[in-house]
Amino acid sequence: MSLAKIGQLAWRNLWRQRRRNLTMLVALSFAVMGVIFLNAFLRGMTAQMADGAINSMVGHVKVLQPGYRDDPGIARSFVLESEWSPDIPAGQLQGWARRVRVPAVIMSERETRGIEFIGIDPAQESISFVADWTIEGEQLEGPGDRRILVGRSLAEQLETAAGRRLVIVTQGADGRSREAGYRIAGLYQSEHSALEKFHVFTGIEAAQALLVSDTVTEVSVRLTDEKYQPTVLQSLIETFVGLNVFDWQTLQPMAATMMQLSDAMIYILFIIVMSALVFGLVNTVVTAVMERYREIGMLRALGMRAGAVLLQIVTESTLIMIMGVAIGTAAGGGLCLWLSDGVDLAAFSEGLEAFGFSSNTLVPTIVPADLAFVVVASLVMGVVASFFPALRAVRLNPLEAMRR
C-alpha cells in the first residue's frame, strides 16, 4: 500500500471513535500547554533571579581586593586610575561602575542604624538597580555631591525626611573613626524593602573625602550578553593582577544554583507529565486494536503486509500526537503572550526578596530551545509508545482474528 493510502486509512480510523480520540487529544493538548507554560514560568523565574543578582550592584564581573568579602572596609581597597576604563568592545559592554562601599552607622535625632555606606558616580549606575529607583526629592548630581540618598523604609525608622540632616560614622583609611553630617537629597523607593533599610548613597568623591582615601573598593562590569562573560573575566584577571575578579555566579551562589536546577526541573516535569500521557496513549491504541481484530485479520488475509499494518497504527497515534502537540503549543504560547505584562507576586514579596528577585512582577519567558525540545520529545515519545500495540496487531493470526 502507498503511504498516502495508509495515511488516509489512519485519518479515517481516528474518527471512528471520536469521543475516545477527542478525549485523548484534549488531554494531550492540556499537558503540552501546561508543560510549555510551567517551563516558561520557571525560565522567567530564573531569568528574574539572575537579573536581580546582576542588577544588585554586582554586574557580570566584579573586581575586589582579596579579603574584602570576609571583612569589607576601606582598608581593603585598591587604586584605580582616574582615566581607566575596561578594554571591552562596545558591542559587548553595557557599562561599568567604580564604587566605595563600607559599613557604617547612621544617626538621626531619634534613632541609630547600621548601614552600608556607598559612594557612587550616578552617571555610571545605569547598570544597577539605582537606575530603577523612584525618588522623593532630588537625585545626586554627580560624584562630588555631598548629600545622601536614603531608602524610604530607613527614613521611616530614623523618623526623618528629605532635606533633613543625618550623621554617618565609619572607619577611615587610617583606622580612625570618621564622622560627618549629611543632608538628605531624596528618599528612594525600591521594590524590596531590605535595600531601602540597608543602603545609603552619596557621591564617590564625597565618600572618599570622609574616608581620607582616593581608592575604590570595587569595580563592576555589566555586559550586553552573558556569553561574553568568560572572555571578559579572563581579560580583567590579566589586567588586575593581585586582585580578585569574580563572576556573578560566584558572588550570588543561590541565584546561580537555581539557574542550574531549573534545567533539571524542566526535564523532570516534562518526563513526569508526558510519561503519564504516553500510558494513556498506549491504552487508547491498544483498545482501538482490540476492537478491530477482525478488521485487521481480514486486511491481512486480503494481502495487507505486516509492515503496512504496523505503519497504519503508528500513523494513527502519530496524528493524534501531532494535533495534540500543535494545539498545546499554540495554547501555551498564547497563554504566555497573554501574561507578557507579567504576573503580580507582590503578596509574596518577602519570600521573593529572599531568593534574590529583582521585581515582584514575574514574566513567563519562552526559550526556543525548550519549546523545540517539548515538541520533538513529545512526538518521539508518542511514536515509540505506539509501537507496542502496533506490534501486537502485527502478530495476529488472520484466521484466528476473523473468528472473533
What features would you describe in this structure?
The two termini are 25 Å apart. β2 (93-107) and β3 (112-120) form a beta hairpin. Helices cover 51% and strands 19% of the residues. The chain has 13 helices and twelve strands. The radius of gyration is 32 Å and the shape is elongated. By secondary structure, it is of the alpha+beta class. α1 crosses α10 (306-338) and α2 (18-55) packs antiparallel against α12 (368-394).
Number of strands: 12
Mean pLDDT: 82
- Taking pLDDT < 50 over at least 5 consecutive residues as the criterion, the unreliable ranges are none
Give the SSE order as H and E letters.
Answer: HHEEEEEHEEHEHEHEHHHHEHEHH
Name its key features.
13 helices; elongated; alpha+beta; 404 residues; six-stranded mixed barrel; two-stranded antiparallel sheet
